[in-house]
Design brief:
288 residues, alpha/beta
């Protein structure tokens, strides 16, 4: 790849840049963002080669555009680049929801929506910003692509090649299937962590509670340190699937409450054993 343009040079966008540089898979990386100081930091760290404010200059002769900004910014970005987009430039994203992104592309890009290959790297950290970026963030991680039916196979292959150069495994599925899966295993856990920490922080004795919190609280609450704006946008974008998951989880909590209230030790143990077995089996086969 000769030229990659990244909107949002934070944890994800910055890590893509570092990984591609390490793999010598790109010659020139241009960064665009809302914060000039943030882009200057990316330049000083060597994450990007150029910071641009002009879309025309940034997109000139670009092979690929990666939108790694919060999902709520995707639509205005697509609208803005549509005026400057070459027929040979491929656009992809790193958003955590896909059905909304697919709709954004169809509206903003019109007949050229086939140039857009929606993507989602299943990797991240509770820290955000370019200073948290690292070249190995996507190593052995999954990246999901949800391409349009009329997207040329060669364009999909180029996006796959980019992510494989970052060390990732690439999987394809529909946008709806993606959103249902990640509402359950990613978006809901983040909501629960944020809700628990917020509830404890709202109590009069919050300082005392946090003073005595140890490893169990640390492990459960770690993702509550994630980027608030990003997770606000994800939650709203995947509202329908996430509400279904919240209903299912509330039903499970009601079941646990009933077992506890009736002092059903055998029922609690059976539930805990099933959950423990499932979690341990997942951990044994998961590459980190």
């Amino acid at each position: 790849m000769n030229k990659l343009v990244i909107f949002g040079v934070g944890l994800i966008g910055g890590s893509v840049a570092l990984a591609l540089k390490q793999a010598q898979a790109v010659k020139h990386i241009v960064g665009i963002g809302r914060d000039g100081d943030h882009l200057q930091t990316a330049l000083e760290l060597g994450v990007i080669d150029e910071a641009q404010t002009s879309l025309a200059s940034a997109l000139d002769q670009a092979d690929m555009v990666l939108i790694a900004a919060p999902v709520a910014q995707t639509f205005p970005i697509l609208q803005a680049i549509a005026l400057h987009l070459s027929p040979d430039t491929i656009v992809t994203d790193a958003g955590s929801t896909k059905s909304d992104i697919v709709a954004y592309a169809e509206t903003a890009l019109g007949d050229r929506h086939h140039q857009f290959v929606p993507g989602h790297p299943i990797a991240g950290a509770e820290k955000s910003g370019v200073t948290a970026a690292r070249a190995d963030l996507f190593s052995h991680k999954n990246v999901v692509l949800t391409p349009f039916s009329n997207t040329p196979a060669s364009d999909i292959t180029k996006v796959q090649t980019m992510w494989k150069a970052c060390g990732a495994n690439v999987i394809k599925m529909t946008a709806a299937e993606h959103d249902r899966i990640f509402a359950a295993v990613s978006h809901l856990p983040h909501l629960l962590a944020f809700a628990l920490v917020n509830e404890l922080a709202s109590r009069p004795n919050a300082d005392q509670l946090f003073d005595f919190a140890a490893s169990g609280f640390r492990d459960f609450s770690r993702i509550a340190g994630s980027h608030p704006e990003m997770w606000r946008d994800i939650s709203l974008a995947n509202q329908s699937a996430l509400l279904d998951e919240l209903d299912a989880y509330q039903a499970q909590l009601s079941h646990v409450r009933e077992l506890l209230q009736t002092q059903d030790g055998a029922g609690l143990q059976q539930l805990f054993e099933r959950a423990s077995h499932a979690r341990n089996a997942w951990a044994r086969h998961k590459k980190y």
